[in-house]
Amino acid sequence: MRIAVTGSIATDHLMTFPGRFADQFVADQLHTVSLSFLVDNLDVRRGGVGANIAFGMGQLGTDPILVGAAGFDFDEYRSWLDRHGVDTDSVRISETLHTARFVCTTDADHNQIGSFYTGAMSEARLIELKTVADRVGGLDLVLIGADDPEGMLRHTEECRSRGIPFAADFSQQIARMNGDEIRILLEGATYLFSNEYEKGLIESKTGWSDAEILTKVGHRVTTLGAQGVRIEKAGEEPIVVGCPEEERKADPTGVGDAFRAGFLSGLAWGVSLERAAQVGCMLATLVIETVGTQEYQLRRGHFMERFTKAYGDDAASEVQGHLG
Predict the structure, then answer these.
(1) pTM of the full predicted structure?
(2) Which residues are designated catalytic?
């Protein structure tokens, strides 16, 4: 199964604030917020939702095709992704702009404040999926991840016009999109990904109820934080999958991307939606235990030991033969 992952390619600058953001806000002065946080740590990591998802799929051996735009400073990052099983030949390289950057501070309660510089990401709108499909011999699914908004709209419309199944995954871009744009991006999607907060925001902005949205997409996949994930399809009972037990909680950045990587890998393997979600939750657990979005190591034996403990022998037997 050939899966293309479109989305941002970025460098993450991750900082840690030892206090709580909530303690720094004055209720009657929120309209004039001016704050500076003295942070203890700085980690510069590879990131971007498209690259994070593709990296996770590469770790699982499913040969993802990364589609996005990066800057003239991308050579080292490209080599890293190539070594970890990602096809980067469809990444557009800007001649004038830097690769996008995400700057994020996490407090003691794991709340986050972040900023995103688009840089070369703005050129994602210039990428044509037909060129990608022709190069690899066709596409079975395209994930439309958070990226240049015009690029997301173009990729979605091209998938519809060419009959390519697609998964809608707005994540960070949902805040800046209006209802009309969101309706275009989700209608007809084979899968719609969001977290629980984004789920409510999608319904609020589109004016569509949960039931209405379920009639417009194949499956709605909603991540629930520590409670796992819920998968819904109109007329069917929801599938709810819990998370494996965490060994520690180091950094929540990229956890949602890791879930998507595992879930999409499960689809590529042809296992059930429940099993795909279990793989996603296991990979997400590895990421939350690691600082950085691509710094975890997927050791097959360790992965399967923890997967078996969380989901049982039957689930493990279905997944083990596919794990790269």
Answers:
(1) 0.89
(2) 257
